Amino acid sequence: MTDKKEKSKENINSEENATGSNSIPEEDDAMFSCPNENKEMTARDWNRIGRDLMSAGAVEEALVAFNNGLALDPQSFDLLKNKADALSRSGQKDDSLKMYEDALEMYPDNAKLLCFAGFEVLESGDREKAISYFEKSVALEPDIALSWFGKGLAFGEMMEFEKAIECYDKTIEISPDFTKALIGKAISLSALGEYEQAILFFNRALELDPNDVEIWYYKALAYDALGDGANAVIGYEKILEEHPDFDDAWNNLGILKNAMGQFDDALIAFDRAIDINSEQADVWFNKGYTHAMLGDFESAVKAFEEAILIAPDFENAYMEAAFASVQMGKTDKALMLYEQVLTIQPSAEAWFGKGICHLAANDMKKAENAFEKAYEIDPRYKELVDAQMKKTGC
Questions:
Q1: Kindly report the CA angle at 235 between 234 and 237, in degrees rounded to 5?
Q2: What is the C-alpha separation between 323 and 307, in angstroms, rounded?
Q3: Is 300 helix (H, G, I), strand (E, B) or coil?
Q4: CA gyration radius, the chain
Q5: What is the dihedral of CA 361, 366, 367, 371, to 10 degrees?
C-alpha cells in the first residue's frame, strides 16, 4: 500500500485563514460605506469603502478605493497596508511585497506592518527574511500574537519544529483561543513523533471549532501513526460526513480498512476517491493491492495499469502487476513488466521476479543469470534463490 496522504497545509500557512478572530484590528471599524455625493470624500472615507469592498470579495473595486484614498493621503498607514493586502489577494504578489517594503520605509518601526509584511515575504518563500520581520515586530510589540504565529509557521516550513513549538506556545500564551496556533503546535508535535501530545492540542482546537476538517484530518493521521486504527477511522468518517468529496480522506480510510482486513469496505473507499479524482496513481495502486489481497488478480492488474498510465515511473505498480500476472500464470506479461521495472530502477526484487518467470518457462540459463543479478545487488536473495531452485528440483 502507498503511504497515507497529508493534506496540503495551505490553510494553516495563509495569513488570511490563520488570523481568524485573532487578526490585528484596524482603528476604524464601520458599517458598509459608499461614496457620498453630498460631502467631500476623505482618505479615511475611501479606506472604509475599500475595506467594505474587501469584505464583500470585491478586491479589484477595493483597490480603486484604496488608490483614491492614497491620492489624498499618500502616507496613510492603513491605506498602504490595506492596498498591499488587496494586491496580495488579487494575486499581484510582487506588487504587494513592493507596497509593504515601501510602507516600511515610511514606518520602519511599525510592529503591525512588519507582521503583515512578514506573511507576504513568507508566502514568497523567503522564510529567513520573514522570520527577521516577525522578530522585529515582536521586539517592538511583544504581545502581537499574530507575529509569534507567523514566526512559528516559518520555522515549521524550515522543519525546525522545536523552534516552531516555542513560537506557537508564545502565541497561545497571548491568545489562548488562537485556533491555528493550537493546530500548528499539534502538527509540529506530530512531526516530532509526539502523537499523544499532538492529539491533546488537536482536541483543544476542536473545542473551539468542532467542525474544522483540517483538525479532524490531522488528528486522524496522529491516531493512525499511533496504530490506533479505530480512532483514526472515526476521524476520517467524521470528515466524510461533512465533506464527502474529500478524496484524500477516502484514500486514507481505505488504507485503514485494508489493514483491518475489511477489504470490501476498502474497495468502496478507494472507488469513492477515484470517483472524485481519477488521476491519483496511488489510489489506483491501493485499489489494485486490495484486489490482490482478495485473490482477484485480474482486477488487480487493471488497477495497477491505471496507476502506471498516470505515473509511468511508478516502480511498485509494475512490480505488483507483475506479481499478480504470475499468479494468473501470465509469465510473459510478468516478464515484460519486470523488464520495465529494470529500466526504471534495477532492483534485486525485479531480477528475482524475472528469474521466476524464466524458470516457469524452463529457460534455466536465463533464470540463473537473473538470479545472479538479484543476489549481486542484495546477497540476501541467495537464500531465496537456493530455496526456489530446490523447490523446482533444479
A1: 65
A2: 15
A3: helix
A4: 28
A5: -160
In the structure grid, which three cell numbers stand for residue 65, read together? 478605493
CA distance 84 to 101: 10
Residues 2, 282 contacting (CB under 8 angstroms): yes
Cell numbers for 229, please give them.
486504527
Residue with cell 515610511: 106
Q: By C-alpha distance, which of 272, 273, 336 is closest to 308?
A: 336
Per the CB < 8 A criterion, the answer to whether 245 and 228 are in contact is no
- Maximum Cα–Cα distance across the chain: 102
Kindly give the parts of the chain with pLDDT less than 70. Answer: 3-39, 388, 390-394
**Do 114 and 147 contact (CB within 8 A), yes or no?**
yes
8 Å CB contact between 189 and 201: yes
CA–CA separation, 180 and 21 (whole Å): 10
Residue 172 identity: I
Is residue 207 within 8 Å of 238, Cβ to Cβ? Answer: no
Distance CA 394, CA 391 (A): 8
Grid cell in block for residue 259: 489493514
The predicted pLDDT at position 394 comes to 58
Predicted pLDDT of residue 8: 41
- Number of Cα atoms under 13 Å in the Cβ half of residue 343: 8
